[in-house]
Amino acid sequence: MNNDMQAAVKIFRFVARLNSDFELLLHIMKSWAEEIEKELDFRVEASNLERVRENVVVRGGLDVVVPQPVEGREGGREGGREGQQVGGSLARPQEC
C-alpha cells in the first residue's frame, strides 16, 4: 500500500507541475498518504481504542461496549477484538 501511495503522490506531483490547478489535489494526496499509513497500523488503532475506552467508559462513566484489542500480535498490521466486561455486561466479538 505504501508503494501505491508513493506512486500516486509522484503522479499528482507531475500533473501539478503541468497544471497548477492540481496543486491543491497534490497537497490533499500527500496528507492522505501520511494518514492512511496510520489507519492501516493496527498498533495505532489499538491505542485509539484504549483512549476511547478511557474517555468514554472510565472518565465518562457511560455503560457502553468498547472493543478490546488483542494483545501480543506481531507486526503492525494484525489485530482483532475480544469480549470485554463493561458496565455489568459482556461485550462479545462481532463478526465482520
Describe this structure in words.
The protein has helices spanning 2-18, 23-39, 42-59; strands at 68-69, 81-82, 84-86, 89-91. Helix content is 54%, strand content 10%. It folds into two domains: 2-39, no CATH class; 42-91, no CATH class. It is mainly alpha-helical and 96 residues long. Strand 3 (84-86) and strand 4 (89-91) form a beta hairpin. Helix 1 packs antiparallel against helix 2. The model is unreliable at 76-94 (pLDDT under 50). The strands form two sheets. The chain has a two-stranded antiparallel ribbon with strand order 1-2. Strands 3-4 form a two-stranded antiparallel ribbon. The protein is elongated. It has three helices and four strands, in the order αααββββ.
Shape: elongated
Q: In this structure, how is the largest beta sheet organized?
A: 2 strands, antiparallel
Q: Helix tally?
A: 3
- Could you give the order of strands across the largest sheet? 1-2
Stretches with pLDDT under 50, minimum 5 residues: 76-94
Summarize model confidence as the mean pLDDT: 78
Secondary-structure element order, as H and E?
Answer: HHHEEEE
Any idea what the radius of gyration is?
A: 19 Å
Going by helix content, strand content and strand pairing, the class is mainly alpha
**Total count of strands:** 4
Percent of residues in helices: 40-55%
Task: Name the quaternary structure.
Answer: single chain
> How far do the termini sit from each other?
22 Å
Total tally of structural domains:
2
The proportion of strand residues reads 5-15%
